[in-house]
Amino acid sequence: MAINPHAVPNKPGDDRLRCPKDGTLMEKLTIGGTKKLLVEHCARCGCLWFDPYELAETLQRQNAVEEIDYGIAKKYDQDVHNPLPKHCPRDQAELIALPDPRQPHVVIDVCRQCGGVLLDAGELKDLSEFTVGERLKAFFSRP
Q1: Is the Cβ–Cβ distance between 116 and 90 less than 8 Å?
Q2: Exposed, middle or buried, 88 (CB in 10 Å: 0-12/13-18/19+)?
Q3: DSSP code at position 22
Q4: What is the DSSP letter of 26?
Q5: Which residue, among 103, 100, 48, 99, has the nearest Cα to 70 in the 3D structure?
Q6: pLDDT along the chain (143 residues), means of 10
Q7: In this structure, what DSSP letter does residue 106 have?
Q8: For the chain, which end, N or C, has fewer CB atoms within 10 Å of the first or last residue's CB respectively?
């Protein structure tokens, strides 16, 4: 297993996660509703970390996307500038980049061990907006 250069130990008592992209300590954002969710957000690069099932639940909640994804999606691939593999902030397993099946232009970083998901700034908004063009493409690509 490759060594994660961002696996810098936190101070005792600090349970925040480190951003898999830049090593910044992530802030915890609370998504309201009857059942509160905590997701992690990197203030430096704008990426979001979702533990298993948090992404699906976030996408189902009204106004949740606007509450937490206030970053702007980049027009270029940021990973070209940082070619090192990204690692899960929970268990340090290497994250696997997978295109979203409905919107293949959105690449999701997934941890195969814990099921967590990393989204870049703006990708949550993009996933929540299934455009007319994308709907037509999905309709005509059905078997």
Answers
A1: yes
A2: buried
A3: T
A4: P
A5: 48
A6: 53 84 92 83 94 90 83 52 82 94 89 96 87 56 61
A7: S
A8: C
Number of residues written out for the chain: 143
Neighbouring CB atoms inside 10 A of 123's CB total 25
Residues 6+ positions from 128 with CB-CB distance below 8 Å: 59, 65
Q: How far apart are CA 91 and CA 98, in angstroms?
A: 19
First to last CA, the chain: 40
Torsion sign (Cα): 128, 24, 39, 7: positive
pTM for the predicted model, two decimal places: 0.78
Hey, which bits of 13-142 come out as E strands? 27-31, 37-41, 48-50, 95-99, 107-111, 117-119
Angstrom distance (rounded) from CA 127 to CA 24: 24
> Which candidate, 120, 10, 38, places its Cα nearest to that of 71?
120
| CA 124/CA 73 separation, integer angstroms | 9
- Give the tokens for residue 134: 């994308």
How many helices and strands (H and E) does the chain possess?
4, 6
